């Protein structure tokens, strides 16, 4: 019996933290109609701040909790004022991407403030254990449960028995009706962000107390688990968020008991995608959730893209293929090769997000599939690079079509959530298949490409290879954009309902866009693996997906030339400033935030 009760109790304890995260996500979604991708980062910041208060400043636990609540609540207000409120009249995709940028900024700021190292959370409570029949639990478990119940009770009393709480509930149920009744929706959004961020901060402290260690990067996994819990209960449904958090905690606990600790991430990601596939509205949400309103439209700005004349194009190609390889030194050529590889990855997302309007925040997953497929085929099975590279693209394309197939009918925020989960699933699968991928150790000594019996190892030769494949990728995408298929994708991007009424088959066209984008990303991954000669899962984190997303926003979403210029700025510039470390990543987030706020059509569009 204890084999069942112990995981159950552990799951319910962990589920308390998930419920707090999910509750905040659902509160913001209900009030602001927004999925806050920065919520996990607020959770991690709260955890690190709690550690600082108790470990460095030696505050008692109640005072530390109070400090975290105040600090994270203020942080939530800042996020709403800076990243969300200025975009109130923008298409709904704009504030979503803005919170993605905030997440990246907050993670890097947290690393700069507290260092990126894992910190031990002091044991502030007695180590006594208690037994109730076959159930065992400790003081920490009781405190976690008490803090969670107190937080939930305070929130319930506020929502049910105060004027502001009733206004929040009214806004969540029907925003337009609340506005007509004179409710200050903007102020309530700030209040919702403050409450949800405070709940996330408390959850971070509780998790730190339970696992006894914290680090600034823990927010991504927590955010995914929060999304999974909120989606399981019904995104926007507050009681559902609590039930979803507890259920996810129990499911994870039994999964870890049966399959080991490495399965934890896969379980959360799997639950997220499975729920969105079978019942997007969750257990207590609307059955039509996920289908009501597309997250497309003209976020891409007005005006014409930069157009190149034939002589200008010929001049650029001559400079890239003839001049640069002979005047640049080896280091510059290596940087130029990385720019070319990431440009290919950016071109793949230009097709998916820019042309078809399908906002993907998981493109690094297909990048990883291509890299690992090519590396394993060449190193372990003796394949030629020239056969392994297109095979890697095909494997990535098949994976993209298969992984996205169950949720092709979803719209709006749900597409971004699913693609984020898919990218995380790929990295988690790599970590959990050490017999194939070597797990966290990565693959070493990846052979370079060979041509006519000679290895392509010199910086000049590999640059030529990457540049040639970039030109081929650009030519393919431009041809697709100008074809009948491209016009169908643009119709889906602008108005799914109108496109469907015109005879466009939505699921098939979306699936094809994801598959083709994944193919190009897989080719880019193959190039990266054989240039680096070593790959591991950390190379393909969510920051890569955000970097590529920033590149195409900077370049003008559907503008392939702008994407390349974006890669030059965001990959080439920071690469030359690599000694500055994490400030490189911080730049991506700041630039993405500023672009969405002031120049959503990209720098290389003109009015």
Structure description:
It is a single chain. With 607 residues, this protein is mainly α. It folds into 2 domains: 2-278, ABC transporter involved in vitamin B12 uptake, BtuC (Orthogonal Bundle); 315-606, ABC transporter involved in vitamin B12 uptake, BtuC. The chain is built from 24 helices and 8 strands. The protein has helices at residues 2-32, 39-56, 61-84, 93-114, 139-161, 163-173, 175-180, 185-211, 219-233, 238-259, 264-278, 310-327, 330-355, 363-381, 385-404, 413-431, 434-437, 459-481, 484-494, 496-501, 506-532, 542-555, 560-576, 583-598; strands at residues 119-120, 129-132, 135-138, 213-214, 304-305, 450-451, 454-455, 605-606. The strands form 4 sheets. A two-stranded antiparallel ribbon has the order 1-4. A two-stranded antiparallel sheet has the order 2-3. Helix 13 crosses helix 22. The radius of gyration is 24 Å and the shape is globular. Residues 290-303 have low confidence and may be disordered.
Short description:
By secondary structure, the protein is mostly helical. The protein has 2 domains: 2-278, ABC transporter involved in vitamin B12 uptake, BtuC, CATH 1.10.3470; 315-606, ABC transporter involved in vitamin B12 uptake, BtuC, CATH 1.10.3470. It contains 24 helices and 8 strands.
